[in-house]
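Journal club side-thread
Mid-discussion, someone asked how the predicted structure for our own chain would compare to the paper's figures. Pasting it here so we can look after the session.
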Amino acid sequence: MQLNPKVKQLFSILIVFVTSNLVIGQIWKYPNLPYGFEHLKNEDWYNSKKGIESETIITIQGKDTIHQENTYYDSLGRSIKRIFKDDTIIYEYNNGLLVSISSQKIKGKQMRYFNFNEKGQLLEFTIVSKEDTLDNIKYGYSEKSKFPTSVEYNSYQREERVYNSNNELKKLLTYELDNLTDSITYFYSGDTIKYTDCTNYNDENVWDCQKTYGVYDNKGRLIKIVSEIQEGDKTVISTTKSRYNKKGQIIKTTDILSNGSKGKTLYYYDKNNFMIRVETFSEGKKQRTILYTNIVKK
């Protein structure tokens, strides 16, 4: 559950949310903030493909096509099939949950199992492939909390979570072999969420702490992320801002570091409001283009 490398994540978080068919949030019926600022308040982030039957996605770096795939969607905008050069991946859902992934490349199906209690709280999440358990995550709850107060990932890694009176995540502690290795503290003020992430990288009890805050607008959309990144003895400030059009679609993100580095991402849509192109720039030079073509609408 570490946040490093932070620069890469802060620069890419908005691109990932828009251009990927994430299933994050489908099983989380409670705050889950360790990766930064998830858009669980805005379901549009997960329904951006609603109304599309299929499309071709092409990623271009420089003059070279580095990835191409055909993707198919269900009526809710969830990816049900992806076909690319070396593989075909099929996703299956049940009651809104992603329950299996089958891959031609590995010649098998990855099954996902969920165990809920009578209150609808997730108690256990297991991923199995070819009879091998890949992941088994267990969730514990206090008597008064509807959100998990403990998460056990394996025999040596676990989390403890503390919430405030508004059921917002206040503190997240990560332990490895009962040694505290990461501590994240969240602060809420209006439309702003701040957190301080302190990580212990060695056995000498030396902690590295970094501060981040995110600002949402009155529609629950993330409009700014500011993070302090420690590079040796210097502190670099990373600022990511996002802009939306009148239809609520994200049209631009800018990434600026206080040491002078700059980047931006532009998003384009067709007349039917489907995203057709994403362009990423660094220091004024185009780094990557993602094209959404051959869009078949339902």
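Post-session note: Residues 1-42 have pLDDT under 50 and may be disordered.
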